[in-house]
Design goal:
By secondary structure, this protein is of the alpha/beta class. It has eleven helices and 15 strands. The structure holds 6-O-phosphono-beta-D-fructofuranose (F6P).
Length: 360
């Protein structure tokens, strides 16, 4: 084997999603065509805080065909432990950015490819500026809320999972004359709910971007029943507020707060308002796992190849993005400062309204 002419590093950061391994594989395969070596850093920037750093040499022998079909990330990831305010065992927060930068430099890599959402890319970008090392970002998030890119890796698979859930809920709803409520993820953006809701034939779709009124929902479901329908499908995004304007979340061990639970609250309210039986399904992390869809694998491949090409061309601090059927690249700062919520008058909202779906 010839000595590699360049060494680059890759890590996954933030919540996992389907398609991350397909990105890693694409980066490695493209790098191999250039005779470059790829170092995979484990558990996001946490791998650089371990002594010695947790990192593996990646090559087509350990990331090819099997791995790219799998969900999760072979490198591990974390959505906790901001290196600039790292939670220490004694309860204090410490800036550990210099430790991470030093460990990265010790790996002898000429550039870093970071696969992450807005939070992770903001942190990696700050680290890269402070440490003076070249960074390329690859967008991933089931929430699809990153700016500029039309699609982030993981979104399409999450939508497919939520759509399949509606396909499975519909027959049982119809068999029991029930209103089925499906709560989906998405953080503050309603993309998963709206997209899967349309694809899966929902009757009501509630997203954080559009306020709702229980009376409208009840009237819509009553209208369906007057026309002979004995069931209804309601999709609700996790950040939708309660009727009295409260956000619903769970507190987990270690002080973590995560959205979740609005489905059950609305299930009760809708049952009362419609005088009908309701059942609630909270889809949760099922949306993040499983095999990546064909489209997620496709953008993963395009993003991975383009990221390596950018390094070859000496272009840095760029995020690859999907736009008009093409892969493009934009300054990372532009993407992370432009949060992409559902457009209240966008095509999908108009489509839903055109289909007679109640949006609240
Ligand atoms: O950002 C991705 C996401 O799955 C959100 O949709 C969800 O609110 C959150 O992460 C869940 O985070 P965790 O994996 O920490 O429970």
């Amino acid at each position: 084997m010839t000595t590699p002419s360049k060494r680059i590093a890759i890590l996954t950061s933030g919540g996992d999603c389907a398609g991350l391994n397909a990105v890693i594989r694409a980066v490695v395969l493209r790098a191999e065509t250039l005779n470059w070596e790829v170092i995979g850093i484990h558990d996001g920037t946490h791998g650089l805080l371990s002594k010695p750093p947790q990192a593996t040499v990646l090559h087509s022998g350990n990331v090819d065909t099997t791995v790219m079909r799998q969900g999760g990330t072979i490198l591990g990831t974390t959505n906790k432990g901001d290196p600039f305010a790292y939670p220490m065992p004694d309860g204090t927060l410490r800036d550990r950015s210099e430790e991470i930068i030093a460990a990265f430099k010790n790996l002898g890599c000429e550039a870093l490819i970071g696969i992450g959402g807005d939070g992770s890319l903001a942190i990696l970008s700050r680290l890269a500026r402070q440490g003076g090392f070249p960074l390329i970002g690859i967008p991933k998030t089931i929430d699809n809320d990153l700016g500029i890119t039309e699609m982030s890796v993981g979104f399409d698979t999450a939508v497919a999972v939520a759509t399949e859930a509606l396909d499975r809920l519909q027959p049982t709803a119809a068999s029991h004359d029930r209103i089925m409520i499906l709560e989906v993820m998405g953080r503050d953006a309603g993309h998963i709910a709206l997209t899967a809701g349309i694809a899966g034939g929902a009757d009501v779709i509630l997203i954080p971007e559009i306020p709702y009124d229980l009376k409208n929902i009840a009237a819509h479901i009553k209208g369906l029943s007057d026309r002979g329908r004995n069931f209804a499908l309601v999709v609700v995004s996790e950040a939708v507020l309660t009727p009295d304007g409260q956000s619903v979340s769970h507190d987990f061990f270690g002080g973590q707060k995560r959205l979740g639970g609005i489905g059950h609250i609305l299930g009760e309210k809708i049952a009362e308002a419609c005088q009908a039986e309701t059942r609630v399904t909270v889809l949760g992390h099922v949306q993040r796992g499983g095999q990546p869809s064909a489209h997620d694998r496709l953008i993963a491949a395009a993003f991975g190849v383009h990221a390596v090409n950018l390094i070859q061309e000496g272009k840095f601090d760029r995020m690859v993005a999907w736009s008009n059927r093409k892969v493009i690249d934009v300054p990372i700062a532009d993407a992370i400062h432009h949060n992409q919520a559902v457009e209240k008058d966008g095509t999908l909202v108009q489509t839903a309204r055109g289909l007679g779906i109640c949006l609240g």
